[in-house]
Design goal:
With 340 residues, the protein is of the alpha/beta class. It folds into two domains: 7-122 and 304-320, Nucleotidyltransferase, domain 5 (2-Layer Sandwich), CATH 3.30.420.40; 129-298, Nucleotidyltransferase, domain 5. It is built from ten helices and ten strands. It has a five-stranded mixed sheet, sandwiched between helices. It has a five-stranded mixed sheet with strand order 8-7-6-9-10, with helices on both faces. 49% of the residues are buried.
């Protein structure tokens, strides 16, 4: 007897993308719709939480309907509704959570709350099946973590940022260089045109640590710019961007490789918005091409930034494990991946 296909409807509203998707059997995207708010937040140089929440309210119904239309399915075809319940902006989270609860109640479907970072990790399963034990390098605007997984649904954070996340540092450096928001892609583009000439620090912390720190590096860039201005010297943006990116990428790559060897993993997954960074992707591809016993998986750009297909993919595992949330589920901006 053939096993019935599982269809999970995913919803993601943790920050400034209103997204919904349908994923079949945890690995196949049936439909995937993302409404971005970048243009609305660009003039403020960052995400304004109240504006983000308002946009989610305006867009959520349209995004849900487009997702069903794209798939040619209805909610009666779904097995469960999965939604990001944290971490993220609490107002933004609540829009998605309440939409998911309403759909689950109206159609008598199971409700599954998903950790946003677990979603980013499971975006990789939409590209290649996961092989355990594995290590995921999660790099985004709010998170920089090394997560060890011995099996599906098991997350052990072995390294995390102690201050600024890598994506946050990228945006702050971009502002210093008067680049538009979001700054990460602009730094990446400039870095490809420049040279590592400014000799910025590599912050590795104490020996053996898998934690990260980018605040000092960000400050070094800001000081370099201010000192040059005071001396009347001209900053070469391409070279400063290249120097900054070289420092970030070197530390991220070095710690990921060391952790992969120490934990004897079979796979390394790159996850999160900064996974779209060409410098980081190239560095990891170069290093892991020599480590034949470890498979490197990097998702396409569409699955690096926030989307709901990743939430549905992670939700599929929780559904199969029998995990459910009640109608009292709330948005949790401080949700811990190890205990959720």
């Amino acid at each position: 007897m053939m096993k019935k296909d599982t269809y999970i409807f995913g919803i993601e509203t943790s920050c400034d993308e209103t997204a919904a998707a349908i994923v079949k059997n945890g690995t196949e995207i049936v439909s995937n719709v993302v409404s971005s708010q970048i243009e609305s937040h660009k003039r403020f140089g960052g995400v304004v939480p109240e504006i983000a929440s308002r946009h989610h309210v305006e867009q959520i119904i349209s995004v849900l309907n487009k997702t069903l239309e794209q798939a040619g399915l209805t909610f009666s075809d779904m097995d469960a509704i999965a939604v990001t319940k944290g971490p993220g902006l609490v107002g933004a989270l609540l829009i998605g959570v309440n939409a998911a609860k309403a759909i689950a109640f109206a159609h008598n479907l199971p409700l599954i709350g998903v950790h946003h970072i677990a979603g980013h990790i499971y975006a990789n399963r939409l590209v290649k099946e996961m092989t355990f034990p594995l290590l995921s390098l999660v790099v985004s605007g709010g998170h920089t973590e090394l997560v060890y997984m011995k099996e599906h649904g098991s997350f052990e954070v072995i390294g995390e940022t102690r201050d600024d996340a890598a994506g946050e540092a990228y945006d702050k450096v971009a502002r210093t260089l008067h680049l538009p928001y979001p700054g990460g892609p602009h730094i990446d583009r400039l870095a490809a045109e420049g040279q590592d000439t400014y000799g910025l620090p590599r912050v590795r912390l104490e020996e053996g640590s898998y934690d990260f720190s980018f605040s000092g590096l960000k400050s070094a860039v800001i000081n370099t710019v201010h000192n040059a201005e005071q001396r009347g010297e001209v900053i070469i943006p391409e070279n400063l961007a290249a120097s900054f990116q070289a420092s970030v990428v070197e530390v991220l790559t070095e710690k990921t490789v060391r952790a992969a060897k120490e934990y004897n993993v079979k796979q390394v997954l790159l996850s999160g918005g900064v996974a779209a960074n060409k410098g980081l992707r190239t560095s990891l591809e170069t290093v892991f091409s020599e480590l034949k016993e470890v498979q490197l998986v990097i998702p396409p750009l569409l699955l690096c930034t926030d989307n709901a297909a990743m939430i549905a993919a992670a939700g599929t595992i929780l559904f199969e494990q029998g995990k459910r949330d009640g109608m009292d589920m709330n948005g949790d901006p401080g949700l811990d991946i190890e205990t959720f």
